[in-house]
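Anyone else keep sequences and structure tokens together like this?

Example one:
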Amino acid sequence: MARKLTVAIWHVLQGHAIGALEPVDRLYLKLFKLATEVGVSAITAHAYESKEAFIQKKLHLLRSYP
């Protein structure tokens, strides 16, 4: 049990997504809200074409972890 917890904490600290991800539609909504708060100008300043491109890239990253 302690080893499993340690491994799980290590993955979280490394920035890996945990196995029990939220449904994609809920993640999309959270990323949409984040992108709205950050603003399109900040998103495009970080080399994203649009708010939608930012959301899709982040969703792809989250889904690429096992």
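And example two:
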Amino acid sequence: MENKLFGLSIAVAIAIMIGVIFVSIIADETSQRTLKLTSYGEGIALVNPNATLVNETAVYTVTNAPTGWEIQDCPLTSVAITNKTGSALTPTTDYIFDASAGTFTLVGTDKTKALVPVDNKTYVTYTYCGKDYVSGWAGTVTNMVPGFFALALLLVAAMVLYFVLREKDIL
């Protein structure tokens, strides 16, 4: 009986170690699927038929513009448009941004006119959903999976410990 309990204890200890490894892998993967990504300073070339004026009719699209389900459920957030030196343009004053489409147009203000001869680019920083992003209720449940897995491991370890101690007449 002594060897049986010792073997069971070793087997459970190995199973718990493997389970802990799985918990960390599962937690890492689920966190990757439920976090939004950020694009920093994406350079977008301006369309300027005239080298001194801003083309207010040109529509510019960011690289990671929402498509499919993202248009409704995950529009772009934390949008900031800057010039080459990092000076921020003002939303609705210097540019109009459509977060669901990932597009913007520039307004002919002093800040935007300064973009044309200097660099002829704007730089856009924004947060977006990756292609594997899980949102809403599904994201909440996905984030809970590692915790429940860890609780199950703890419960199994406690049950085995109780069984071993009961067999040894300690409990």
